[in-house]
Amino acid sequence: GVKTPSGTVELPVTVKHSTLKLDTQEEIQLKTGESYGFTVTVESGPPKPLVQAQGGAVMLRSVEKASLPPDTYYYEITAMKAGTERMTATIGEDIAAFPITIKRSAMEMRAQSYASSTKYLVMTDISTQKVGIFQGEKGSWQLEKAYSCSSGAKGTETPLGEYRVTGRGSWFYNRSLHSGAKWYAQFWGNYLFHSL
Q1: What pLDDT is stored for residue 13 in this prediction?
Q2: E strands along 48-178, which residues?
Q3: Is 13 helix (H, G, I), strand (E, B) or coil?
Q4: Are the C-beta atoms of residues 36 and 77 closer than 8 Å to each other?
Q5: In a 10 Å sphere around its CB, with 0-12 CB exposed, 13-18 middle and 19+ buried, how is residue 10 labelled?
Q6: pLDDT recorded at residue 139
Q7: Does the CA dihedral 40-43-45-46 come out positive or negative?
Q8: What is the mean pLDDT of the chain?
Q9: What is the pLDDT of residue 187?
């Protein structure tokens, strides 16, 4: 029974076997910019399930992983805005779901005090190795993208401070290091945001 202010109420419950299995059954708690990975297994075999976020608070992507058992699919969500979200996996009438609670991260709260001459603000947290790309304006920045990053190596540590993009390019190569990268944004001297 279910206890209510007026007493206990008996509710009929129908339990149906689902062919979908999630590797989590508990509520997930994240902060904006954080990611969480989970698998969905289909006991009855293909087709691949339809996985959806209902609420617009997370970015969802399917990730191919060769090491997964047959009929198991891996997904990753990144929390984009504070609120609640419900993740669902569906095949036909079978539904598996779990709730997510998202709180604002320290980076997102700190972003609100910054202004930008454009509609974008990029923040990096060296301690957590995260980059947040925000859209909006001072006091109302909304997280648009979040990425893991790797700051500068010993001897070329990433400088701390506030910077503006001073140059961009599609490719660079450093002969002395025998390495290069695509898609860079220069922000101070020879320091760049770049891919690997």
Answers
A1: 46
A2: 50-54, 58-63, 72-79, 83-91, 94-103, 120-125, 130-135, 142-148, 167-174
A3: coil
A4: yes
A5: exposed
A6: 96
A7: negative
A8: 83
A9: 92
